[in-house]
Design a protein that fits this description.
By secondary structure, this protein is α/β, with parallel strands linked by helices. It contains 14 helices and 15 strands. An 8-stranded mixed β-sheet has the order 3-4-5-2-6-7-1-8, with helices on both faces. The chain has a 7-stranded mixed β-sheet with strand order 9-15-12-11-10-13-14, with helices on both faces. The longest helix has 18 residues, at 67-84.
């Protein structure tokens, strides 16, 4: 079996429920802190070991923001490790169910995604002996509370892990600040608590974040987002478009009738996407609104006869999407998780995987004006100077962040050269 090293804090997670631990009678454990700090794997391993030691024939829940996230972030590393340790693991992917057996005991682990307020209905009515909620701060309160209510078997325990959000976040106020009242063990992680990260890797992650995201995901603090959203963006991030051809072309769209519309033209060179051109129309300034057909013509002119692989569009622009599809464009509804998309965009910009070129004046202008809403009790951006910002975010989340190079949400339509 491959030898694994665990830090002192990880060993606390692995052993807090054991007979000799002074925390064994607590009802829950909460682990928060920096990204890549080693929380997820040791939580999953400890959870399964506890479940198999304490129960037989019981049901448990493995929860993430999405079921795909549970498989990717938790099971991808956990299942091989469990099999190395002698556990028999059988996953029924179509049923979102995992059966684990060891030493004559067998338990069932159900996979759940807590992405919205309706997710609580999926787990309602179950009787659970325990639940692990990874990325708990990204789940709606109703789902977390419904999951906690389902853990009604004698000896059941709850396991939470998350990265910090804002200080007014309900999970911070109701669980972390009330950990003692909730009879929960609270452990705060830093990157240094992950023995698998060397100094160079830690420095690399530190360079990927700035502002509130640096304080949250590197320092592990629950702080409010304020000031400019992309506070690191300056003229050093603006470059000339490279000469020569591009391997692929895409266009991203934030559609507006009363509000401005913004389209971005993206070209792929190597593993870098360049925003080489843009179209921006403010109907209020022009004192005239445009139709779907007129915008489709503007998009065609922006394409300039290039072979466009995909047009990524604001998912709420249903009529415009239909217009483009009828004209033969290959269209994808954009992924529209605002906060996740902002984090993805910031990371790709800082890595140099997204480049804004000199001709994109409206996008450059909005980068300097796009700000957090300080009056909101939660992370929220101000709904102004956000049209190019939304369209760039759509492209980053839907296309640029996909390592496989595949497109999400795009039905097959024969590409045409315009």
């Amino acid at each position: 079996m491959r030898v694994r090293r665990f830090s002192k804090k990880q060993r606390q997670v692995l052993s807090w429920w054991c007979d000799r631990s002074r925390h064994r009678d607590l009802d829950a454990i909460i682990c928060d802190g920096a990204v890549r700090s080693g929380k997820t794997f040791c939580m999953g391993l400890s959870f399964v070991c506890w479940a198999m030691r304490r129960f037989h024939g019981a049901a448990f829940a493995l929860c993430g923001k999405t079921i795909a996230g549970v498989r990717r972030n938790l099971l991808g590393e956990l299942l091989p490790a469990l099999r190395e340790l002698g556990f028999q693991c059988e996953e029924k992917v179509s049923q979102n169910r995992l059966t684990i057996a060891l030493g004559g005991k067998e338990n069932t682990f159900y996979l759940f995604g807590g992405k919205d307020e309706g997710s609580g209905a999926l787990i309602q009515g179950m009787t659970l002996a325990g639940a692990l909620l990874d990325e708990a701060a990204l789940m709606p309160r109703s789902f977390v509370e419904q999951t906690a209510a389902r853990c009604s078997v004698q000896g059941a325990k709850l396991w939470f892990s998350c990265n910090p959000e804002g200080p007014e976040h309900w999970f911070y106020r109701e669980w972390i600040q009330k950990a003692e009242e909730r009879r929960a063990l609270y452990l705060h992680f830093t990157m240094e608590d992950n023995p698998g990260l060397g100094p160079e890797v830690i420095e690399k992650y530190k360079r990927q974040f700035s502002g509130a995201f640096y304080r949250r995901y590197v320092l592990g603090e629950w702080v409010a987002a304020e000031g400019r959203v992309y506070d690191f963006f300056d003229e050093s991030y603006v470059r000339q478009a490279p000469e020569g051809g591009f391997a692929r072309w895409c266009i991203s769209c934030d559609y507006g009738t009363v509000n401005p519309a913004s389209f971005g033209l993206w070209g792929l060179r190597g593993d870098i996407w360049y925003r080489v051109g843009e179209y921006y129309y403010d109907s209020k300034a022009a004192r005239r609104q445009k139709t779907d057909g007129e915008y489709a013509g503007d998009l065609r002119r922006l394409a300039g006869g290039r072979d466009i692989d995909l047009v990524v569009v604001d998912p709420s622009a249903a009529s415009f999407i239909e217009k483009l599809r009828r004209e033969g464009w290959r269209v994808a509804r954009a992924e529209n998780d605002v906060l996740s998309g902002i984090r993805t965009t910031a990371e790709l910009l800082r890595q140099g995987k997204l480049v804004i070129c000199e001709g994109c004046r409206d996008a450059i202008r909005e980068f300097s004006l796009y700000c957090w809403d300080r009056t909101a009790g939660e992370d929220r951006v101000r709904k102004e100077h956000d049209h190019a910002m939304d369209e760039i975010r759509y492209f980053a989340a839907t296309v640029a962040a996909k390592r496989t190079g595949g497109y999400i949400g795009a039905g097959h339509v024969e590409r045409r050269r315009f």
